[in-house]
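2024-03-11 09:14:02 DEBUG pipeline.ingest accepted 1 chain
2024-03-11 09:14:02 DEBUG pipeline.ingest length=256
2024-03-11 09:14:03 DEBUG pipeline.predict start
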Amino acid sequence: MSSFLEYVPGTSPLHRMNPVAKLAAAAAFALACFCSSNLAFLAVLLAAGFALAATCGMVRPAIGLAKAVFAFSLILAVVQVLTTPSGAVLVELPWGYVGTGSLLAALTTVVRLVAAAIPLFLVFYVTKMNDITNAVVKVLHVPYKYAFTFTSTIHFIPMFMNDMKGIMEAQTARGVEFDAGGIVRKVRLMVPLCVPLLVSSVRKTNSAAIAAEVRGFNLRTAASGYKEYPFVAADVAAMAGSLALVGVIGKKVCPF
């Protein structure tokens, strides 16, 4: 995860696009995933996401993300299977049953979350955080402090994950076995680790705030950035294609 959110130079279309166009197209793609319940169509969107990752040379990171999202979505899928009985009965439960419709809905949830995550991941992976912040300020006229807060939040995620990994490795060296026992025991072992992680995060956040204040953070405006972010034909085409995808799905969901 140390390479997460680092800019990777390249000549693919995704690298050359306007940062705002990237965000808009990725958000529209993710919205299309959540608007559709057709498993086959979601599978096509998932394949399209991996194809986009291939054009950027990011197949392996995209697969790693897919595995992480799959592990998270699997929990939601299990809850959905156990709590939303539908379709032909497969397994009887004291409070209901597990049906074919339940399994199909759970599988749809997993595919939807993975397909929606990949484009957003690629945008943040191949684009510098400074470019995203400055483009949002210049193009969308968002106040700089809000854009900076958003990108800083994303930037701190891998840092906190690395800190958590270091704390867990230190505890493992002291004889703590995180892989042994059931989920209750793992939760009991993980909860105390949140305290040093919280202390570390507060220190880093405070240091970042002081550094920003010293550099004149409150004086920065849209005119402070020297780099321009013009829209080109590829940006317009990507945004139009993503919005058209959402429109087609929305028409099927709500024909009126």
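2024-03-11 09:14:41 DEBUG pipeline.report The longest helix spans residues 144-173.
2024-03-11 09:14:41 DEBUG pipeline.predict end
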